[in-house]
Write a structure and sequence with these properties.
The structure holds two protein chains of two kinds. Chain A is α+β, with helices and mostly antiparallel strands. Chain A has one domain. Chain A is 38% helix and 28% strand. Chain A is globular, with a radius of gyration of 13 Å. By secondary structure, chain B is of the alpha+beta class. Chain B folds into three domains: 118 residues, no CATH class; 156 residues, Phosphoenolpyruvate Carboxykinase, domain 3 (Alpha-Beta Complex); 125 residues, Umud Fragment, subunit A (Ribbon), CATH 2.10.109. Chain B is built from ten helices and 22 strands. In chain B, the strands form three sheets. In chain B, strands 3-1-2-4-8-7-6-5 form an eight-stranded mixed β-sheet, with helices on one face. The radius of gyration of chain B is 24 Å and the shape is globular. The chains are: A alpha+beta, B alpha+beta. At the A-B interface, strand 2 and strand 3 of A face helix 5 and helix 6 of B.
Chain lengths: 97, 436
């Protein structure tokens, strides 16, 4: 049986070195020697994930900061982004719903 | 014939000096080593402040009798580099080095010993790894790239294997403008915060590296890409940093090293223009630099001074090796007794074994730092100044004359010195033969 429950919150791996460059951010994973370039929104989410945050919290914060973004589209994008980073091992999942 | 005593090489790569004490090895191998690193060596003076001092023992290459077993051995012992603030260890199937940090005369020197197989690849690997660890601690980095000097500036073309680094080097109209086709050192200058590109002795299929320690102001990072037409497309700082991290030579995986490298690369890419250099196989350097010109900034032909007297002397040595005869306007106290302000000194290449008594030679006397190095004149047959020794100096050439007010004068006193040394009975016939 697989556990299909989703994490309730996410937090970035504090061991990963990263550097802001203008609006973007570069994250290095020493374990895989991969380098990730995050765009402006991705860099902002990375910043927010310094402390554990749920998807709802991330979407609410970003909706405040990016006026005019459609809530459903924003949620879908944030969810996909967080899942991608989580899949690469850059984020730690907290709790399961 | 094998050397009995250690061979000492004092190298300077990317502005970091390193002392190598090489163990016994056949003279043919040592000659190969001296030739490979010759442009980056300086007189092995104990006064020079070095960043690293390594005693390296050579082990004979094991005969290759079982290829499968050899491959299994190499796979089981890949390159592993560990570096902290106190130690650096480098291990691979064919080499092992351990260095410890020591505070020496106010700076940190990495001192240690190790061994490697007696082949140029193993030795080159040791040096590349050491400099890849030390340079980031001094605001520098080694980059997989082709480096070219263009007018009075340097351009670095980073790229993975197969993207055309050696092909680009081979296109250079003058091979001496190639700083390396494989590995370039980039370093931030503490005095002005600018970035300089340094040639290295680490080459690829071009089979020759930089010709001197001379560095050039870095004006552009041009990331190599093979395309159907020649174009230069600007890339953002963050995209450049991403690409440059992929080309930076780094074998460490610890957080401190990666944070240091990341900070260094992002700073470099924020301060230096970056483009994607889309090249074709047929593109000429004239075409390439024609397209690059708008991205290089102003005054690419404006003369820039060398970073240090060490760089200046090293470059002077390369000129002499290339042209055999060179004229320059000396400055500084080391040459003042022989020339006046405005004079040019004519120097011809000369081996120290073919000098005659009375010859005036120009020699390189290294000091503690790169700015303490001095170019001095000396008349053969007279004692060297107190505290100096030929073992710690390098004869660069013989002074053949001085150009003053548009006239060429022979070096004064060369034959007169014979009279002082051997007395008039021997010296006078020589002076008559010389028409004096």
């Amino acid at each position: 049986m697989t556990n299909e429950s989703k994490p309730t919150s996410w937090q970035r791996d504090p061991a990963l070195p990263f550097q802001r460059m203008d609006e973007e951010a570069i994250v290095v994973d020493p374990r895989t020697r991969e380098v990730h370039l995050l765009n402006e929104t991705g860099a902002r989410i990375w910043e927010l994930l310094a402390t554990a945050a749920s998807l709802d919290e991330l979407v609410a914060t970003l909706a405040d900061e990016y006026e005019g973004a459609a809530p459903e589209a924003l949620r879908a994008e944030v969810e996909a982004f967080v899942a991608e980073l989580g899949g690469k091992g850059l984020l730690a999942a907290r709790g399961r719903a | 014939m094998a050397s009995k005593s250690p061979t000492e090489l004092l190298l300077s790569i990317g502005g970091i000096a390193g002392r190598l004490s090489l163990g016994a090895a056949p003279e043919a191998f040592l000659a190969q080593v001296r030739a490979r690193y010759g442009a980056f060596t300086m007189p092995a003076s104990p006064d020079v402040a070095t960043g690293v001092s390594l005693r390296l023992r050579f082990e004979p290459m094991a005969p290759l009798t079982d290829v499968a077993a050899h491959l299994a051995h190499t796979e089981a012992h890949p390159l592993v580099v560990k570096a902290t603030d106190k130690t650096i260890t480098i291990k691979r199937w064919d080499l092992s080095v351990r260095l410890s940090a020591k505070k020496t005369r106010g700076h940190v020197e990495w001192v240690g010993a190790g061994h490697c197989e007696m082949n140029p690849y193993s030795l080159d690997c040791v040096l590349r790894v050491i400099w890849s660890v030390l340079l980031p601690r001094e605001d520098g980095l080694l980059v997989h790239s082709c480096g070219l000097r263009h007018a009075e500036i340097g351009v670095v073309f980073p790229g993975a294997s197969g993207l055309g680094k050696t092909t680009l080097a081979r296109k250079a109209p003058d091979a001496d403008d190639v700083l390396s086709d494989e590995m370039i050192a980039i370093r931030r200058t503490p005095s002005d915060g600018g970035w300089r590109v340094h040639g290295t002795p680490f080459w690829g299929d071009f089979a020759r590296g930089g010709i001197s320690m001379r560095s050039w102001p870095l004006r552009a990072l041009a990331f190599l890409a093979q395309r159907e037409s020649v174009e230069m497309s600007p890339v953002t700082s963050s995209e450049a940093a991403l690409r440059l991290l992929g080309c930076m030579l780094c074998f460490q995986t610890d957080r401190a090293a990666i944070e240091r490298n990341l900070a260094l690369v992002t700073r470099l890419c924020a301060e230096v223009r970056s483009v994607e250099a889309q090249l074709t196989r047929a593109a000429t350097t004239a075409q390439i630099f024609g397209k690059l010109e708008p991205h290089l900034g102003p005054d690419v032909h404006r003369k820039v001074p060398t970073l240090s007297t060490r760089e200046m002397i090293s470059e002077f040595r390369s000129f002499l090796r290339k042209h055999q005869l060179y004229a320059f306007s000396p400055k500084g106290a080391g040459l003042r007794q022989h020339v006046k302000a405005g004079d040019s000194m004519l120097v011809e290449s000369a081996d120290k074994n073919e000098l005659d008594v009375g010859d005036v030679v120009l020699y390189w006397s290294p000091g503690r730092t790169a700015d303490d190095d001095v170019l001095r004149c000396h008349r053969v047959g007279t004692p060297l100044p107190k505290g100096q020794s030929w073992a710690h100096a390098e004869v660069l050439g013989r002074v053949s004359g001085i150009a003053r007010d548009g006239r060429s004068l022979p070096m004064p006193g060369r034959l007169d010195a014979l009279a002082r040394l051997f007395g008039p009975e021997v010296a006078m016939p020589i002076l008559r033969l010389a028409g004096r």
